[in-house]
Amino acid sequence: MNTRKASRRPTRVLRWITVDTEIGAVLAVSSDLGLVAVRVAPAIDSLVADLSREHAADVLVPAEPSEFLELRQALAELAGGRGIESPLRLDLGGSDFQRRVWDALAEIPRGHTRTYSQVAAAVGRPTSVRAVANACGANRLALVIPCHRVIRSDGSLGGYRWGIDVKRTLLQLELGARP
Fold first, then answer.
1. Where do runs of H (alpha helix) occur along 20-87?
2. Judging by beta carbons within 10 Å of its beta carbon (0-12, 13-18, 19+), is residue 152 exposed, middle or buried?
3. pTM for the whole thing?
4. Residues belonging to the active site
5. Per-residue pLDDT reduced to its tens digit, 112-143
């Protein structure tokens, strides 16, 4: 008989905000340590429902409109293809490899792209292209960690959790073109 107790992480209080942007609704979730998640969708309702399911063990509190004003502005800038002046505090999680990939993604200049192979080489694992793609897919911080800047080696856009149209629009906005 297995008498081990299942390990559970402590309950966190997460505050969330929504921002209407050029690419749709953006929902951001923050812990005391920093951003936990940033999501994109055509409508807020689906984002809030997903948030409730994925963070069922946490206490979710919608922020007041006057809270997180700098974060709201930063997300609007990022969603518009523009940069932000100050880095955002992040509560990343993830494995060591995922964090190395996410760090490499953050180094890709706005308006530029890299292939999955180039990112794999940048993290010192040139044969780990599929693992890089998986790390991109596991990125919980859309816009902030710019996985939309990673493309296939043939130049096609590849996948994007928030949809190819959003990926294409973000890249066009970063280049200063209107979609």
1. 44-54, 69-79
2. middle
3. 0.87
4. 147
5. 999 999 999 999 999 999 999 999 999 999 99
